[in-house]
Specification:
- This protein has about 250 residues and is an alpha+beta fold.
- It is about 30% helix and about 20% strand.
- It has one domain.
- The chain has nine helices and nine strands.
- Strands 2, 3, 4, 5, 6, 8 and 9 form a seven-stranded antiparallel sheet that branches. A two-stranded parallel sheet has the order 1-7.
- Strand 8 and strand 9 form a beta hairpin.
- Helix 5 (about 135-145) crosses helix 6.
- The chain is globular and about 50 Å long.
- Residues about 1-35, about 125-140 and about 170 have low confidence and may be disordered.
């Protein structure tokens, strides 16, 4: 009983804190935006385990393509690499340059950055309708998930005159409950009707990788601040490097 009360209370607190975080553009007519939304609009991203800028030739090819065309192609690339569960977000108000971001589902990986292919890659199926609260998700993660290494990708499209910085002190790392919340709140695909009116010229795409480890000793889950796998290894191991035709 006490455990259930704590779980419900923690879920309520987290939901309130994250209610306006990375809210889709259609919901941004509220008078006050959260501090985290404002930070992302300024290009401030939670500190990642590893990161890199993707070459424009792989993501935003030459030509006056719209962001709708670019993000649609990117979404298809994610799906072909196995990342069919996506949470897409737009940050920016009318008159502001749009920041577009997409988050992938948490997956279990090997030490070389390749996904587990023995049926355990997507063992954390927190998108299931049966798991309908943060509390049940955390319980599933901590009690049901096997020990090992886990990863999620966070890709951000942003104009190159607006630099991105990581904020290790002000922003907490992405946690499993935040990832779940983002996936459930985000659009399942890019909002093409909005992005079709925005040119991809001067946009860059950044890959942020967030790693977690679940201990085989006590079952604790920790964020990996400094990964032994760099961003290019993650992209190659996931298959995205090949799908996006990144050279090198």
């Amino acid at each position: 009983m006490v455990s259930q009360r704590i779980t419900k209370l923690s879920s309520l607190i987290i939901c309130v804190l994250l209610l306006t975080w990375l809210t889709p553009l259609a919901a941004q007519n509220t008078p006050v935006r959260s501090d985290l939304v404002n930070r992302l609009a300024r290009g401030e991203i939670p500190e990642a385990s590893s990161r890199m800028e993707l070459p424009p030739s792989a993501v935003i090819p030459l030509g006056n393509l719209s962001l709708a065309q670019v993000t649609k192609k990117f979404s298809q690339a994610l799906t072909s690499a196995g990342y069919s569960q996506q949470g897409w977000y737009l940050v920016g108000e009318k008159g502001e340059p749009l920041t577009v971001a997409v988050l992938t589902q948490l997956e279990q990986i090997r030490d070389n950055g390749r996904p587990r292919m023995d049926g355990k890659r997507w063992s954390l199926d927190y998108s299931s309708p049966e798991i309908n609260s943060l509390g049940s998700f955390i319980e599933t993660l901590l009690k049901g998930a096997p020990p090992g290494r886990y990863r999620t990708f966070f890709f951000v499209f942003r104009q190159n005159q607006n630099p991105i910085t990581q904020q290790p002190l002000q922003l907490q790392p992405l946690t499993q409950d935040i990832i779940r919340d983002w996936l459930l709140r985000g659009s399942r695909s890019p909002q093409l009707n909005v992005l079709s009116k925005v040119s991809s010229k001067d946009y860059q795409c950044f890959a942020f990788i967030y790693e977690y480890e679940r201990s085989s000793t006590d079952g604790s889950v920790t964020f990996v601040k400094n990964s032994t796998i760099d961003a290019s290894q993650h992209l190659k191991g996931s298959g995205l490097w090949k799908v996006l035709k990144i050279q090198g």
